Amino acid sequence: MNSKGELSDDFQGLSELQILQGSILQQGSNRKYSSINWEFEEAKILNPYWLQLLWSNSRYNRIFNKPAVLSLNCNQFSGGIPPSIGNLTNLNWLDITDNQLTGTIPISNGGKPGLDMLTQTKHFHFGKNRLYGPIPPQLFSSNMTLMHLLVDNNQLTGRIPSTLGLVKTLQIIRLDRNSLSGHVPSNLNNLTSLSELLLPNNALTGPVPNLTGMDQLTYL
User: Fold this and answer.
1) How far is the C-alpha of 219 from the C-alpha of 210, rounded, in Å?
2) Mean pLDDT per 10-residue run, the chain (220 residues)?
3) Are strands 19-21 and 69-71 parallel, antiparallel or unpaired?
4) Enclosing H/E stretch for 70
5) Strand order through the sheet with 130-134
6) How far apart are CA 105 and CA 115, in angstroms?
7) What is the pLDDT, as a whole number, of residue 43?
8) What are the residues whose beta carbons fall under 8 Å from the beta carbon of 41, sequence distance 6 or more?
9) Cα–Cα distances in Å, from 149 out to 69, 144, 168, 197?
């Protein structure tokens, strides 16, 4: 798909939407959807044409309370990650891979939402974008149930936060092909369920961390 434009910061509606997918469905004809009824009931998938209307026209915006999957991969979306995605507290899978997204990873601050609020999300797939700045330490906590953290092929800088070692449910971590620096946190050996840890093509220094106890690790 080649959907374009910036992602709206109004990801709070369509209360029954379970899957919002803008990448693998094929676009149809050049029909106009100006009169679409946006009161979805038990909607499963949103066509990319409708998706474009959603973030380009505020009168179509609704509140997303219960989506399970937000899959916008393999498009040409630009701009930053909308902080309001953090309000989707029932989100299981967030995939924005292979776009042209820029900016930093949004974190909650006061009344402003951020991705650290997604403690029930199992998948963060952010690879192949143009995200920059550090990976925020506040993004991770022991309350998270995250299994996949994929932020490879971006422009991230700074150190790998030691808070990453708090997320003991992690199975796959991809931080490769960024500009991360400093030591690898020693507490990553807390992640005993980890099977893949990819760190190459960064500017990391220091000794290889102690991997004792990481019996599931098969790809390093």
Assistant:
1) 15
2) 52 46 37 30 39 40 54 87 88 91 95 94 97 98 97 98 97 98 95 95 92 86
3) parallel
4) strand 69-71
5) 4-6, 76-79, 100-103, 130-134, 155-158, 179-182, 203-204
6) 8
7) 36
8) 16
9) 16, 12, 12, 10
Q: Which residue has the tokens 């507290």?
A: 89
C-beta separation of 134 from 159 below 8 A: yes
Structure tokens at 39: 């009161």
**Beta carbons within 8 Å of 13's beta carbon, 6+ residues apart:** 61, 62, 63, 64, 65
- Chain position carrying tokens 């910036």: 6
Q: Are 184 and 165 in contact (CB under 8 A)?
A: no
Q: Where do we find the tokens 């899957």? A: 19
Length reported for the chain:
220
Nearest Cα to 189, choosing from 152, 149, 153, 216? 216
Q: Does residue 213 sit in helix, strand or coil? A: coil
Chain centroid to CA 62: 21
Strands (E), 74-216: 76-79, 93-95, 100-103, 123-125, 130-134, 148-150, 155-158, 172-174, 179-182, 196-198, 203-204
Phi-psi group of 183: left, alpha or beta (phi > 0 → left; psi -120 to 50 → alpha; rest → beta): beta
Q: What share of the chain is helix, strand, coil (3-state, %, to 5)?
A: 15, 25, 60
